[in-house]
Amino acid sequence: MSTRSQVFSSDFTDTPYWWKDWRPHDDLMAEVPRDVDVAIVGAGYAGLSCALEFAKHGLSVAVLEADVPGIGASTLSGGQVSGAVNVGKAPSGKKLDNAVSELRQQALLREAAASYGVFESILRDNAIECAYVKAGRINAMWTDAHLAAWKKRIVNLNAYASAGARILSRDELRDELASDIYAGGVLLERAGQVHPSMMFAGLLAAARGAGVTVCSKAPVKSVTRSGAGYRVETARGALASRHVVICTNGYTGESMPHLKRRVVPVVSHQIATEELPADLQASLIPKRRGISETRRVVNYYRYSPDGKRLLFGGRARFYSLDRRQSGAVLHAQMVERFPQMADVKVAHSWGGTVALTLDFLPHLGRTAEGIHYALGCNGSGVVMMTYLGYKVARLIIEGQSPESSAYGSPMLTHPLYRGKPWFMPALGSYYQIRDVIDKRRQHA
Question: Is 178 in contact with 338 (CB distance < 8 Å)?
Fold first, then answer.
């Protein structure tokens, strides 16, 4: 096994792999307008898709970004896309049967399936080139118990979400994935991959082309009622707006304390390997599917769009790590799954902040002050955050209440949680220990 100092390539960088093709840049210092129809806080997938939908219907829109558009999770994700795979899933990989009724599960799955169609139509209608391929996805089963639970779960996935899901035995999975660590898998045909920063760049260009004003370095200090609308104070001036939509997800700040108490920010880490030898390029994931696990502390991975590198991600730790530390942890996890990768080095290591919710479900809604929001995709946000932003815009345009969406239920909080996830190191360690125990029981 390589030592920590030996796992990095000579040209190692902590610059995200995706940024080699498009990286966030600060050329959007547009003046904060004095008044607009809609002010959107957060220039990620959700904020931009929301803005684009409003602009298509002739409304004036300003998107207010605290830093540089794209600096957050939207250009840092693993780029795996699907509809409904993670709806109503607890950290153990099991359904939330006790928390979500059967009828609501069906509604959630139907709408999540629709979200995939919205995602594809946004790419198509705006000619967004982002290396999108519909190669399918495999949920790799950590234990036999997880496989048994998924045998029940795919019935609803296929009936209500058109997921194209089928069980893979351990031997069938071995034909798809050159690893012996899993108990089997579930193949989901209605899934794929994108280049996340190129998708973001395309969405940004489409929004700006539709007339949206995107303001960088304009962190929001406060949002207050003013007559029939709102006054939004930013670091670069104030504006008046008829509607306000919060799309900050894992970066929700002090200006929205009510929402900050309802999302738990967690860093998801990733690495990209150096270019792989030809035999590994051909053999690790021969059909180039996306892979995700059913562990509580999940790992996920795929090839780079050119097929030359493995991109491997997960919650390396639940406390602060520098990029070499997180890269070393992920390299060890990668080699645990693929011992044949022991001598392959890490070329890039990075991370982005996602937002978990206490019921493990995405949410859109409206606060008591009438401020709309789209938040909490629990680490699976390429499709869902894009959809929730679009959906909030549709609800406002059509005059519908958030409750008309399956994702319009109130967000939960806890009396001991004020927005700082003090409990995550202990909870994360507990989940990691449970994963180890489950695997040992499997071997026993």
Answer: yes
Q: Where are the domains of the chain?
A: 4-435
For helices 144-161 and 102-125, angle between their N-to-C axes, nearest 10 degrees: 70
Tokens of 89: 């899933």
C-alpha distances in Å from residue 149, one per residue of 85, 90, 152, 292 = 14, 12, 6, 16
CB 180 within 8 A of CB 339: no
CA dist 117 and 139 (Å) reads: 21
Per-residue pLDDT of 16-72, as tens digits, reads 999 999 999 987 789 999 999 999 999 999 999 999 999 999 999 999 999 999 999
pTM: 0.94
- Considering the four listed CATH numbers 3.90.220.20, 1.10.150.290, 3.50.50.60, 3.40.50.12780, the one that applies to the domain covering 4-435 is 3.50.50.60
pLDDT in tens, 359-403: 999 999 999 999 999 999 988 889 999 999 999 999 999 999 999
The token duo for 26 is: 């600060």
